[in-house]
Amino acid sequence: MDRFNAMRVFTRIVELGGFAKAADSLQLPRASVTILIKQLEAHLGVQLLQRTTRQVSPTLDGAAYYQRCVQLLADLEETEAVFSTRRQNPRGTLSVDMPSGIGRFLVIPALPTFTARYPHIDLEIGLNDRPVDLIREGVDCVLRGGLALDESLVARPLAMMDQITLASPGYLARKGVPASLDDLAGHHMVEYVSSASGKRFGLEFQFGAELRAVNLPKVVAVNSADGYFCACEAGYGLIQAPYYHAMQRLAQGSLLEVLGQLAVPKMALTALYPPHRQLSQRVRVFVDWLVELCAQPGTGLQRQRLR
């Protein structure tokens, strides 16, 4: 029995919650996965997995063994990378998840520079506004906007994104163009509902150290960034969003900036990954590339203002 291979199979079963999913993920025959786990349990003399008709979960011994396996496999990968050309030429599949807007407008257009630099890395990119369980879904790294971070994950700050206040031309023609906070009386907003926390977001403005929340009446609430913009374009009220995400619509004229003289709080952009993957060379080079990308001018993350 190849113990390291058996450990790799075991950890993937725990993370994905099933033998079949693990076999498909590792591109192994399902029978081979079953045999490896039986051999591993016989070698250790303990039951590692509890099998039911619906799911597979680790026993108490299996949960403890999983934690040790994760660390050992991460250490092995890092050790091999140090003493091989893989450190300069990392290879393998990297699974990344990010909000659709960040993927469409920021990451994917710039991705050819990353794939040219690391041609042996195969990327699997998910575009989601929903929360992702990195361990169970086998995701290596996620990008997230906002400060609601999972403390069990390693966080790498990427940027503080400028935000602006927006409305559609049709809406402003009906309601008038507000010139101050007092002018917002009689206006509406589109409410954003976080699919991760359920928290509801209205409008916020920054006055020095003071953060002032403005909750206007609403007709529509949405839980996705694309839906948020679409509701605004349809004339349902004001929204606040990262400038990079609004650039195209501003250029096309489907949305207009309002209250531009009032500062909107910046939004953090962060890369998150599980602690046992922080030594992965694939994750490391991708996150380093993201840091480079976010520091470049013209991305729209930081608005370039004329002086």
TrEMBL record:
Segment forming the signal sequence: none
Cross-referenced Gene3D superfamilies: 3.40.190.290, Winged helix-like DNA-binding domain superfamily/Winged helix DNA-binding domain (1.10.10.10)
Listed GO biological process terms: DNA-templated transcription
Gene Ontology MF annotations: DNA-binding transcription factor activity; sequence-specific DNA binding
InterPro entries according to UniProt: LysR-type_TF_proteobact-type, LysR_HTH_N, LysR_subst-bd, WH-like_DNA-bd_sf, WH_DNA-bd_sf
Domain HTH lysR-type: 1-59
Top-level taxon in the UniProt lineage: Bacteria
Keywords from the UniProt entry: DNA-binding, Transcription, Transcription regulation
Protein family membership: Belongs to the LysR transcriptional regulatory family.
Protein name: Transcriptional regulator
Species: Pseudomonas aylmerensis
